[in-house]
Amino acid sequence: MKHAALCKRLGYQFLQPQLLQRALTHRSYSAAHNERLEFLGDSVLNCAIAKYLYDTYPDLPEGDLSRLRSNLVNQQTLAILAQQLNLGEQLLLGEGERKSAGFRRPSILADALEALFGAVLLDAGFMAAEKVVLGLYVPFIVQTDLKTLGKDAKTLLQEHLQSRKLALPQYHVAEIKGEAHAQTFVVTCEIAQLGLVSQGEGTSRRIAEQIAAERAYQQIKETQ
Amino acid sequence: MKHAALCKRLGYQFLQPQLLQRALTHRSYSAAHNERLEFLGDSVLNCAIAKYLYDTYPDLPEGDLSRLRSNLVNQQTLAILAQQLNLGEQLLLGEGERKSAGFRRPSILADALEALFGAVLLDAGFMAAEKVVLGLYVPFIVQTDLKTLGKDAKTLLQEHLQSRKLALPQYHVAEIKGEAHAQTFVVTCEIAQLGLVSQGEGTSRRIAEQIAAERAYQQIKETQ
């Protein structure tokens, strides 16, 4: 079967494989694309995660539950989980999106994963979809520090340095590569008092800074 | 049974009446209040309505489905449905909220109704909660013009007058009653070319204007 590996990783066999096919179809590929399924899947995801958080954290007030959930269902987390599933390889993308590496773009990956959840809901109902959602999310939640979830790497790094009364990191654009419409930014993050310089690359300065900050933060954590 | 009438209107009998009790408890009344249930219920509501709209409108694109849903799950619609259930009478409110007529406040009513949906989810699972949600919403959806849903009365009135090339209505504050902390505004809405004047009362000028516009719009519709 074409999507056997994906179904195995999802822990779910579709009764109606055409739903899976549709969940994997980006609007650039066909009019029979996944956006309506994404709408449905987004709501299943929200509900499954809400129930899980409600049950798992009986003492957390509503505001904290909301904050946790919104950090779990955001594009960034969805894209990470989609990458774990190698979802990008299975996507049906139009030629333009394929050439511009759309199968790696977080928004496309996140949308397709939501569409997958919607497809399972249609295929076998809420409980089946909830099981698929939690099968992916619970391992992620368990290994994630919920206190830091949703804070970006620059914020985490800055808070850590402040807690040690160290000066803030300095970010510099070291290089801009590629043509105007497809540039790659190389940014360094320097923490002089720790003698630490890290580097990040990304399609924008902001992304490159975040990656550099993430690497600096990891290095500090490892040497502590 | 204490809440027999409410349960009958909901079409649902609680296996665990303490969940119903909690859903009806505002934070001003007790620390065992309904806010966590509201968090849960909000997500069930979203999911049940998403599934209903997906199934009912197979040709609507994702953007329209999202817009429809957000207009159905907003505070205004929830408060209307809560009023139909006479939910206000059943709420457990602290003394301050009782004295300031909190049982009529849209936000308190809407939150309690969401909490009720959450309570049904915990009591008997997603399908039971979905059934309660749709039992309330489908009659509302069926009688609502989805094209105008989410547009406020002033907007609808203005669009209607513009389509007939008539001048816009004039709103005037006719009276402000009551003491400073509990004022009631009386606003008139005049459409000179139709010789029509309507009036609205509310706790703010904005609300009074909307009510006056709603009445003018109804009058125009009835005489057409």
From TrEMBL, chains A, B:
Domain RNase III: 3-125
Limits of the DRBM domain: 152-222
Keywords: Cytoplasm, Endonuclease, Hydrolase, Magnesium, Metal-binding, mRNA processing, Nuclease, RNA-binding, rRNA processing, rRNA-binding, tRNA processing
Entry keyword Cytoplasm: yes
Catalytic activity: Endonucleolytic cleavage to 5'-phosphomonoester
Listed Pfam families: dsrm (PF00035), Ribonucleas_3_3 (PF14622)
Broad class of the protein's primary localization: cytoplasm
Domain of life: Bacteria
Gene Ontology CC annotations of this record: cytoplasm
Annotated catalytic residues: 42, 114
Enzyme class: hydrolase
GO biological process: mRNA processing; regulation of gene expression; rRNA processing; tRNA processing
Enzyme Commission no: 3.1.26.3
Binding site for Mg(2+): 38, 111, 114
Protein's cellular compartments: Cytoplasm
Cofactor(s) the protein needs: Mg(2+)
GO molecular function per UniProt: double-stranded RNA binding; identical protein binding; metal ion binding; ribonuclease III activity; rRNA binding
Keyword Transmembrane: no
Function: Digests double-stranded RNA. Involved in the processing of primary rRNA transcript to yield the immediate precursors to the large and small rRNAs (23S and 16S). Processes some mRNAs, and tRNAs when they are encoded in the rRNA operon. Processes pre-crRNA and tracrRNA of type II CRISPR loci if present in the organism.
Sequence similarity: Belongs to the ribonuclease III family.
Self-association and partners: Homodimer.
Protein name, as recorded: Ribonuclease 3
Organism phylogeny: Bacteria, Pseudomonadati, Pseudomonadota, Betaproteobacteria, Nitrosomonadales
Gene name for this UniProt entry: rnc
